[in-house]
Amino acid sequence: MIAEVAELVDALDLKSSGYSRTGSTPVLGTNLEILMGDMGDVWKEVNQYRKEKRELNRQNSADILKEKGIHFERKNMGAHLIINHNNKIVDFWPGTGKWIIRKTNKKGRGIFNLLKVL
Within its chain, how far is the Cα of 106 from the centroid? Predict the structure, then answer.
């Protein structure tokens, strides 16, 4: 995906695209319009990838906690897990990996870093 963006940027040639200045407003030709249209498609793909990654993180994190025998309660359809283990209560958002230990307010990211703390 990044390579595609790089190719698009390399393909942008301002001289052949009809770039000129009229007053203080730049006027760009069709190459930039094509680039901007393609950039929209690239960002749609990026957002879709991120959404899928968060969903995968939610599934995998819950599975890992179950395998380790760590009790948790699901909230908001699994977007927020409340973990009660070793006299610690932890709020965990598996989509992003963020976690906060309630009493100490210690914060971190990642299921494996959380497991180390528990």
Answer: 22
Domain boundaries, given as residue ranges, for the chain = 2-117
Burial class of residue 51, CB neighbours in 10 A (0-12, 13-18, 19+)? exposed
Determine the residue type at 69. G
Question: What pLDDT tens digit does each residue of the chain (118 aa) get?
Answer: 556 655 555 555 444 444 444 444 454 455 555 556 677 888 888 889 999 999 999 999 999 999 999 999 999 999 999 999 999 999 999 999 999 999 999 999 999 999 999 9
How far apart (Å, rounded) are the C-alpha atoms in residues 25 and 100?
49
CA separation for the pair 72, 81 (Å, rounded): 6
- Chain center to CA of 36: 22
Type of residue at 115: L
Q: What predicted TM-score, i.e. pTM, was given to this entire model?
A: 0.65
